[in-house]
Amino acid sequence: MQTESFLPKDAPDTPPWLQGLNAPQKKAVEHCDGPLLVLSGAGTGKTRVLTCRLANLISTGKAKPWNILAVTFTNKAAREMKDRVANMIGPMVEQVWFGTFHALAARILRRHAEAVGLKANFTILDTDDQLRLIKQVMEANHIDVKRNPPRMVLAMISRWKDKGLTPDKVSLADASNLVEGSGADLYAQYQQRLLELNACDFGDLLLHNLTLFNQYPDILTDYHQRITHVMVDEYQDTNVAQYLWISLLVQKSRNLCCVGDDDQSIYGWRGAEVANMLRFAEIYSEAETIRLEENYRSTGHILGAASVLISHNETRLGKTLYTDDQHGEKVRVNGFWDGASEARAVADRIESLARHENVPLDSMAVLVRAGYQTREFEDVFIRLGIPYRVIGAKFYERQEIRDAIAYLRLIVQPADDLAFERIVNTPARGLGAKTIATIRNAARQQGLPMLAAAENMLSDTTLKPAARKHLAEFVNMVITWRGQLEHIPHTELVMTVLDESGYTTMWQKEKTPDAEGRLENLKELVTAMDSFEDLPGFLEHISLVMDGDNTNAGGEVMLMTLHAAKGLEFDVVFLPCWEEGAFPSQRTMDEKGASGLEEERRLAYVGITRARKQIFISYAASRRVHGLWQSGIPSRFLAELPDEHLIEETEHGMASGTAKPVTFDHMPIPTAASGYGPGWARLQERRQRGFTPSRAPVEGTSALTGQSDYAIGDRVFHQKFGNGNVIAIEGDRLTIAFDKAGDKKVVAGFVERVHKS
User: Fold this and answer.
1) 178 or 266: whose pLDDT is higher?
2) Helix/strand/coil for 60
């Protein structure tokens, strides 16, 4: 890859902050006055531009160190920027305002706390304290916290704060969506309690700053004099409150430098507004825009594929990445009959690269769209002894999975006191710490497991009637489940346990951004159990997984979601599970429409541009999703990748003989009329040109378009779901009312017609 030796030669007296810069980088560094937008593509050296520009401002006297505010999203990024600038200009860097949005806002708020009703020594509450406080407010208003989970209410309040909305600014429409219309009132009471406690949460830090700047002109004028230049990293990830805060600070000087990449804006689900970047030139009409397009990370084929893919987004400022380096290997695309074959093939390729090409394990990564998708790869890595690390919690270490497994452990082994204590009050059953301590003491005195001691306490008056009633309900459920252990499949038992215990309902009511992912993980747990003969065998497997050695001298393969991978880079990247509905996410598209699809495409772009040398994209024709087999079609994003940068591997490629890959023509392809867009037409053309071996069309579909020729009312048979009737048709996708499985959406090619209507 490109190194310093490829960069422009500098004159001997060139200052360090101007050395080794290409022309656009140098132009951005030397721009000192007025608004500047630096569109920095992946791997184009944005951190270098930020640090060199800051050093240039100070060294040329355009700004004093204490007049510069440099904002980042993480403390790590702030430290890295500060260290780099210190290497160029020395100790003067200590006087620059470095920090995250929250850290800098807290610094300002402590100087003016009294103006918003706080004292300078206010406390910043963590999430647990925030939950306790909102719960107190709700209970004081006689609101059922079981029907209206405090976490859900707190999440909505946080979203309002991210939008810069104080309680009086929340619209009736927004407030009506929360706790039967009382959301704004709860928000106001929550804020009042915070003031009484001399405390604030993270959202308040910026919200109180906005109040200071808007209601106290003298305070804002003071900061206009103090801060003459503002620099913002990752500007595409700013939310409304952050945008407003920045705008007020540069209201007078207009010296704002924002660096970021609209093509990497992937955090809309947590409030990020890519429009802040897209409208920069409209808001600051005198602004200069500089594009950093020369990539120093990836090969030509990787960049070519990524650039063409992202060009399908309409709402973007536009840039095209390129490199002076060699083209390297083409992007490899492969299909498999099922998810298990795909996971084995990825593991085989990793082993081959490590053993035969000496590629370090820690320079390889598997990036998935959703957290639950890591499970299948984790299981394969464990079986093959491939060291790996999950960024974020490993599948079997996630809270909801540990809770579910605790239920199962207690059913199989009633003497498991650790499991008992974990789930006896999860979800909440009115069995608090005092009750649990009483059961624990009784168990010790009687020399019994806690479950047995609890059962004995149901017939005496040790516990209060309410606690005894709730404990009886729990003990009876466990006894019932134990009785079912030998009579129903263990996969059916776990679903029964999760439903009857109220655990699934607890997360369904949560309505927070991570609640849906937790429910997906629980469904994936059922899928994982299906490959084991019985429940004890599965629990033994889990014990071995949890007892794995976490230290590996030879490094570990990285396994993470695409969101977690942003900002990272690897020599080799695997992008599995590229099927329509999974990626792009159907839920995202249903909720956000066209903007959701564009954010999904940006996520695919981020995934591809994480790779330095090699990239492998794969999909499966069928996959166990949440315990059910689903047929699938390749992601539309595959259709948008350019032929000249791709290789579709054969059975001798990625699969290494472990599973025969399928090709693009294996499954019917939706038409543009089906709502899938022009990319699908390109995939159809690719198939007709002979990009993949030809096959006869699947019965029930058109040979040319893949359009279903079924009619509503047709009687059909599916290998997994049995017989059913077609009740709706969309392109090649059929909605079928199965006799036993209920309504399902399946691809026409995966059913057989029994008779026409």
Assistant:
1) 266
2) coil
Length of the chain, in residues: 757
**What span, in angstroms and rounded, lies between the C-alpha atoms of 191 and 197?**
10
CA distance 750 to 741: 16
Instruction: Report the distance separating Cα 574 and Cα 214, nearest Å.
Output: 49
Whether 196 and 117 have beta carbons less than 8 Å apart is answered as no
Interstrand relation of 68-72 and 288-292 (parallel, antiparallel or unpaired): unpaired
Predicted confidence band of residue 415 (pLDDT cuts 50, 70, 90):
confident
Query: Three-state SS for 238?
Result: coil
334: Cβ contacts below 8 Å, ≥ 6 apart: 345, 616, 617, 618, 648, 649, 653, 654, 655, 661
Tell me what pLDDT residue 146 has: 77
DSSP code, position 738:
E
Residues 474-503 have pLDDT tens digits of 999 999 998 888 888 888 888 889 989 889
For residue 192, indicate whether it is catalytic.
Answer: no
Q: How far is CA 222 from CA 93, 219, 230, 248, in A?
A: 22, 5, 15, 12
Mean pLDDT of 665-686: 43
Alpha-carbon dihedral sign for residues 344, 345, 350, 351: positive
* Confidence band for 423, pLDDT divided at 50, 70 and 90: confident
Model confidence pLDDT, tens digit, residues 689-736:
443 322 223 334 332 233 467 888 888 887 666 788 998 887 667 888
Structure tokens at 465: 């009637």
Structure tokens at 690: 């002979």
Phi/psi for 638 (5° steps) reads -65, -35
Specify the DSSP element, H or E, that contains 716: strand 715-718
The three-state secondary structure class of 317 is coil
Contact 561, 370 (CB under 8 A): yes
Helix (H) or strand (E) holding 723: strand 722-730
46 is catalytic: yes
- Point out the catalytic residue in the list 162, 201, 204, 233: 233
Catalytic residue among 162, 204, 234, 510: 234
Rounded to a whole number, what is the distance in angstroms from the first to the last CA of the chain?
A: 62
pLDDT of residue 680: 45
Backbone angles phi, psi at 166, to 5 degrees: -80, 165
Contact 70, 81 (CB under 8 A): yes
Q: Of 130, 238, 264, 323, which one is the catalytic site residue?
A: 264
Nearest to 304 by CA among 276, 326, 287: 326
Asked if 235 contacts 258 with a C-beta cutoff of 8 angstroms, the reply is: yes
pLDDT at 663: 43
Q: Are 577 and 619 in contact (CB under 8 A)?
A: yes
Range 406-430 average pLDDT: 87
Q: Give the model's pLDDT for residue 679.
A: 43
Q: Which of 26, 46, 84, 330 is catalytic?
A: 46
636, 584 in Cβ contact below 8 A?
A: yes
For 618-661, the pLDDT digits (tens) are: 999 888 776 677 788 899 999 999 999 998 875 433 433 333 33
Q: Select which of 2, 27, 30, 47 is catalytic.
A: 47
Residue 599: active-site member: no
Rounded to an integer, the average pLDDT of 197-201 is 89
Q: Is 172 helix (H, G, I), strand (E, B) or coil?
A: helix
Active-site choice (349, 468, 610, 624): 610
> Could you confirm whether 47 is annotated as catalytic?
yes
**CB-based contact 58:64 (threshold 8 Å):** yes
Residue with tokens 């083409």: 330
For position 694, what pLDDT does the model report?
A: 25
234 belongs to the catalytic site: yes
Any catalytic annotation for residue 373? no
Tell me how far apart the alpha carbons of residues 614 and 299 are, in angstroms, rounded to a whole number.
8
